[in-house]
């Protein structure tokens, strides 16, 4: 029997710890995971965690569709190389499909139909890529769809949260119909002064799992960079563990080549 892939507190909380194959150890399958952060505490390292888990080696049977708005390919390639994951190799082997949406523009003054058409085209490209990956010729076990900053997609769409939500609804259907994972990052403080329903509140309703990266309640610390709170709203029989509906909380420290996860008071 193959040895279980190394795990940590984040994997434990997500229910992916202890898996004996890369597909089960990568990302929560058939689930929509929402990562929330704020200006004081970036959650980008959580996205890096998912990318590395989904692409553990050049021979992996997993694939990642990465919609990047916050940073370009060179940035992510540089960061992931330090974590032992070479994105250039994965892209060359067609295991990573990197859509650099920094140049995505919805011209000022365009009508709703034009904005809608842009999202339809974007989703169509994702759907075709997923179908290609899951074809008998490719035999990809798991496809992870990752969006690094959904709030920037809302800005690119001229503030149209409705079109962004429609787009995400279609992406969520891929988690069940095509056995995909969907990982989305957003910024909680962007909506902190907005009254009424926001894109964030809709995302929290749709998500199966919510990961919040927050500053320490006790203030700044040189050795502890923040805390993670994970809420699994739904767990399926595919999952290896975790507590449904119960918030799990622990601290983290981001280092150049890794991230430490630990319970309060246990840092050596």
From TrEMBL:
Pfam families, A to Z: ELP6 (PF09807)
Gene3D superfamilies named in the record: P-loop containing nucleotide triphosphate hydrolases
Name of the molecule in the record: Uncharacterized protein
PANTHER family: ELONGATOR COMPLEX PROTEIN 6
Annotated GO CC locations: elongator holoenzyme complex
Family classification: Belongs to the ELP6 family.
Pathway membership: tRNA modification; 5-methoxycarbonylmethyl-2-thiouridine-tRNA biosynthesis
Native species: Spirodela intermedia
Gene Ontology annotations of biological process type: tRNA wobble uridine modification
């Amino acid at each position: 029997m193959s040895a279980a892939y190394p795990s940590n507190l984040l994997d434990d909380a997500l229910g992916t710890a202890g898996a004996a194959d890369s597909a089960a150890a990568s990302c929560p399958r058939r689930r929509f995971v929402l990562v929330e952060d704020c200006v004081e505490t970036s959650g980008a390292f959580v996205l890096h965690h998912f990318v590395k888990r989904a692409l553990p080696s050049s021979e992996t049977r997993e694939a990642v569709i990465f919609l990047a708005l916050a940073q370009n390919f060179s940035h992510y390639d540089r960061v992931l190389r330090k974590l032992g994951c070479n994105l250039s190799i994965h892209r060359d082997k067609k295991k990573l499909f990197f859509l650099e949406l920094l140049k995505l523009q919805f011209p000022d003054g365009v009508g709703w139909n034009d904005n809608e058409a842009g999202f339809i085209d974007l989703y169509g490209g994702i759907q075709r890529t997923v179908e290609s990956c899951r074809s008998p010729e490719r035999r990809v076990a798991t496809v992870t769809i990752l969006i690094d900053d959904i709030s920037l997609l809302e800005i690119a769409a001229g503030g149209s949260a409705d079109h962004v939500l429609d787009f995400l609804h279609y992406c969520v259907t891929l988690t069940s119909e095509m056995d995909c994972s969907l990982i989305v990052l957003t910024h909680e403080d962007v909506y902190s002064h907005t009254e009424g329903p926001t894109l964030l509140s809709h995302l929290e309703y749709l998500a199966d799992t919510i990961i919040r990266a927050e500053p320490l309640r006790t203030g700044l610390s040189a050795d502890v960079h923040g805390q993670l709170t994970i809420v699994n709203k739904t767990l399926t029989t595919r999952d290896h563990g975790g507590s449904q509906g119960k918030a799990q909380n622990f601290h983290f420290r981001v280092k150049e080549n890794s991230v430490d996860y630990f319970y309060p008071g246990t840092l050596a």
